[in-house]
Amino acid sequence: MLRSDFAPETDRNAMAQLASGGGVVVELPGDADWRAVGEQIRSAVQVDIRFASFKDGRGFTLATQLRTRLHYQGRLRATGDLIPDQARYLKRVGFDAITPDRSDLAADWAKAEQRFSVVYQPASDAIATITELRNREGDDLERLNARYRQSDALEILRDAIETTWRGRIALLSSFGTEAAVSLHLISRIDPATPVFFLDTGRHFAQTEQYLRTLTERLNLTNLRVLKPDAAEAREEDGDGYLWQRDADACCALRKVRPLARALDGFDALVTGRKRFHGGARTELPVVERVADGLRVNPLANWSAEQIQAYFQTHDLPRHPLADMGYSSIGCWTCTAPAYGGGGLRAGRWPGQDKTECGIHAPAQGAAVRPERK
Amino acid sequence: MKAITANRLTDGRVIYRTAQGQWSTRFQDAQPLDDYAAETVLAQAGRESGIAVGPYLIELGEHAPAGQKWRREGIRIDGPTSGTIRLIEPANHDRAA
Amino acid sequence: MYRYDEYDATLVRERIGEFRDQIERRLDGRLSEDEFKPLRLMNGVYLQLHAYMLRVAIPYGTLNSAQVRTLARIARHYDRGYGHFTTRTNIQFNWPALTDVPAILEELAAVEMHAIQTSGNCIRNTTADPYSGAAADEIEDGRPWAEIIRQWSSLHPEFTFLPRKFKIAVNGAAEDRAGLRVHDIGLQIVRDALGQTGFEVWVGGGQGRTPRLAVKTRDFLEPRDLLSYLTAVLRVYNQHGRRDNMYKARIKILVEALGAEAFIAEVEEEFEAIRDSELRLPDAEIARIRSFFGTPSIHNPAPLPEAGEPGFRHWLKRNRRAHRVDGLSSIVISLKPIGGTPGDATDEQLDIIADLTARYGLDEIRVTPEQNLLLPHVHNEDLHPLWLALKSAGLATPNAGLATDIVSCPGMDYCSLATARSIPIAQAIAKRLEVAGLSEAAGDVTIKVDGCINACGHHHVANIGVLGLDKRGEEYYQITLGGAFGKDAAIGGIVGKGLAGDDVPDAIARILETYLQLRRGSETFIDTLRRTGADAFKEAIYVAQ
Q1: In this prediction, what percent of chain C has a pLDDT beyond 90?
Q2: For a disulfide at C319, which of A42, C42, C123, C332, Cβ 3.0-4.6 Å?
Q3: Least CB-CB distance to A363: which of C5, C22, C38?
């Protein structure tokens, strides 16, 4: 079996050159000293490294040294007693092809090669390491946030929608008391921007009415209503009282998972969250990484007064419940008016510790900084 | 006499080769074999790598393993001699062999 | 402590998928046992005497309460209600079914743990001083570096099929509590003349059949060059380490065969070639990893309790260690009840330990190379309630560092490599010494028991070592004297012919009695032995024979 899918370019070139008589194939045992073979491989178009046993890992270092110290750029092939579980290691140290002695396991080889999506170590395959990704992304986010600090919400959204995440960004709206602001902003940029609404099946009738009013008024043309999976809903919430038994599980069923499914193909999601909402939102950055991707929060630093002013300036319709004491609106099952103290979101999941539904859950580890220093 | 033992592939438990060509977790079920038969049956057992891992011969005495490895094989039958420590009260900590 | 980000979690998840697939292929015959064995070992799965054994990695010995609770649950659901803490600060379960291992790994992954490279001929779990972040003599916390090494060494494309296993330890304090000189690579954090920290590097130590102390290969290594240097050492080893004889395959044999000077020259040549590569650690990454570790600070430090039951005061004296922060103490939880199995803990005990870790330990607990647990950060005012809770769980044996704090490998009661039993010998020694009051009288002394020459129980570096061997079907035990683990590491010397198991406890008792006769002032056992030489002790061992 000849696996030639690792590097078809090298493969074709080597084959063509061999066919025209220009070059040689050199076979080296896995225990060859790389320092002693420079002369031998100088005119080679293909070097075969033969593994006497899959347990003898010398060939991995030999391949690395041919690639990095001798700068050998021709075709490199591993042969001998190799097992599929080594596919990725072989590829990473610079092999283009593998011809194992045992030839009946092509499917296992193919599977093993795709097994891992991340790596810690730099190697001859030059794919970005986890360390690079971490720091690259960290830098990117930091740069973006620095840039956006100089911009107002409209400018941030314009950049996000038209440039930075063009075609891969959507707005998530609750169609709650403040939602008109971000909806209006995106309608000024591109009314065809996808707008997600999580239809939990538990919304106030007034919210659904408000959704129709705003969509029409702002001429939004790409509203996507996300519903819970019907089979899951039957299974997990047959009697419709899951919200009473386990609010987290209810949010997972009706919000978290439908959103996760909808996010396929999107890199970033715009939200209307603001720092003055308090709780976990007091340190909200404009761009942040959460568990399922990026969030863009163009209104992060807006005050309650700015929101009111924006409503007035643009003569936006109010949510019908806003005047009845509801400052933050979710499902009717878990929302109460927020009277007096306790913050704007005090009416959400009243009487519970719960303050967020989980759709903006932090990236694992990212939220957990040194607990005690 | 000899017998054949191994560990079971799925859970690692100690097993013995029976006269019926099966494997049993009970030492009493082990088939006693003379030297010649032992080698033949061991070769057969070695081909059953989907059931038994690393089959090998042990020496048999009257009702227990014999030879140089008698203690090791005895521990494989009876379990650790050190006692396990499923106890909470310090007073019960006295459980040496 | 360190928390996984999505990359770390992804890698662990994908590794479980790989192992699940490997088990499947073994069961349906696509993998032979010969092929499967190294693969399962690389995921911590041994086949021992009675069953499979799963060794779970505890990176640099650090756990939080959720992780301890998960270990308890695994012991209860998949094992026989107990686990065994090892000298390399991991935990092993003695009875899991192979087919249950993927489910166990899922449970572990949920609390950011795994069994990656806890065995096999690859880079093993990196250990560190268990007192990191708590020790008064700390130069710098070694754990961030151990974590950096954990990540770099996980599924390394070049170094997963090495000649033999490879163990790295990091020590960040003045005293060496990680055993650097008996590791393949030991990294000692030091300060240069300008106050910058870096690594003093030791290579080629190890125990086993051919115990060797490491040689110093570098006085100072820039921290950002750590991975380049480790790569250089591993590369030289992977190319030139012996593969024809597994007993001569460790790097210590290569260092000895080449000579330290030639070995260092090879490493330096490689190091220079790769120093300025992607292996150089970005400052941001070092800072990121460091940010997870630290020393707690407290308000209103309470003094050490003066009063209390005699048992409490005695336990404080024996099992408490001074903390670098005023008002905090480090507490050894002894897993050495007299007559118990060294290093074992039951599921109930683990659950209690998890609760106490959360309640009194700032949610952090360590495993020590002595097979004990350590709560590094305990408020002084919590010491008494902590003691009461530990006492009722059988976890307050006041013997940390004493003769009954015996280290022991599992030996022939569990291990398929063992030549003799070790746990029953350790149990008998502890009981003999306790009954005679010798444990308390003899003060600090280390006793370590091994059931074969592989020396997982570290008998070579014990003040008093016991090595179990087999002579024509009978167990016998060799005594070694004078070994030491830390800065003044030494390999113990064999005193003479081996003893029957039954004679070992009395022999050890006579060794300690001899010390009590010979000691001057506040000399410890090892001080006296070094001053007087071993003759008097040898005589005492064989006096009755």
Answers
A1: 96
A2: C332
A3: C5
Lookup: tokens for C151: 């990540």
For residue C506, what are the CA distances in angstroms to C338, C408, C436?
16, 18, 10
Give the residue from A295, A303, A318, A331 showing the smallest Cα distance to A172. Answer: A295
Considering the domain architecture, whether residues C97 and C213 belong to the same structural domain is answered as: no
The secondary structure of chain B in percent helix, strand, coil, rounded to multiples of 5, reads: 30, 25, 45
Q: Which residue has the tokens 């009415």?
A: A209
Model pLDDT, residue A10: 65
Task: Please indicate if any CB of chain C lies within 8 Å of the CB of B20.
Answer: no
Domain assignment present for C398? no
> Last residue of some domain: C362, C392, C422?
C392
Q: In what order do the strands lie in the sheet with C320-322?
A: C62-63, C365-367, C373-379, C328-333, C320-322
- Give me the domain span that covers residue C194: 127-289
Token code pair at residue A25: 């194939």
Helix, strand, or coil (residue C12): helix
- C333 and C201 assigned to the same domain: no
> Could you count the other beta carbons within 10 Å of the beta carbon of residue A370?
14
Average pLDDT over residues C5-29: 96
* Chain B contacts in chain C segment 451-490 (CB below 8 A): 470, 472-473, 475
Do C244 and C275 reside in the same domain of the chain?
Answer: yes
Q: Pick from B11, B82, B85: which is nearest to C99 by CB?
A: B11
- 3-class secondary-structure state, position C508: helix
Asked if the C-beta of B80 comes within 8 angstroms of chain C's C-beta atoms, the answer is: yes
Strand order in the sheet with A75-80: A24-29, A44-51, A75-80, A97-100
* Dist. CA B35–CA A31, nearest whole Å: 42
Selected catalytic residue, list A84, A357, A359, A360: A357
- Which regions of chain A are under pLDDT 50? 1-5, 364-373
Asked whether the beta carbons of residue C235 and residue A64 sit closer than 8 angstroms, the reply is yes
> C162, exposed or middle or buried, with CB in 10 Å at 0-12, 13-18, 19+?
buried
Q: Which residues partner with C474 through β-bridges?
A: C471
Chain C interface mutation, best of A55, A71, A82, highest count of C Cβ atoms under 10 Å: A55
Kindly state the average pLDDT of the residues B8-35: 96
Return d(Cα C62, Cα C130) in angstroms, integer.
8
Nearest-Cα distance to chain A for C17, in Å, is: 8
List Cβ neighbours of C34 (8 Å cut-off, separation of 6 or more). Answer: none
Cα–Cα dist A57/A31, whole Å: 9
Which CATH number goes with the domain that contains C162?
3.30.413.10
pLDDT in tens, C384-438: 999 999 999 999 999 999 999 999 999 999 999 999 999 999 999 999 999 999 9
pLDDT at B89: 32
Point out the residue among C10, C239, C295 whose CB comes nearest to the CB of A118: C10
Out of B76, B90, B94, the one facing C49 most closely (by C-beta) is B76
Distance from CA of C494 to the nearest CA of A (A): 35
Residue type for B24, please?
S
A137 touches chain C (CB under 8 A): no
For A55, name the nearest residue in chain C, comparing CA atoms only: C161
Evaluate whether C190 touches C220 at the Cβ level (below 8 Å).
Answer: yes
Is A357 tagged catalytic?
Answer: yes
SS3 label, residue A110: helix
The CA–CA distances, whole Å, from C248 to B12, C124, C244 equal: 30, 18, 8
User: Does residue C100 sit in the same domain as residue C135?
Assistant: no
Chain B residues in contact with C391 (beta carbon < 8 A): 90
Do C66 and C131 belong to one domain?
Answer: no
> For an interface test with C, which of B7, B85, B89, B92 has the most C Cβ atoms less than 10 Å from its Cβ?
B85
Number of CB atoms found within 10 A of residue A100's CB: 23
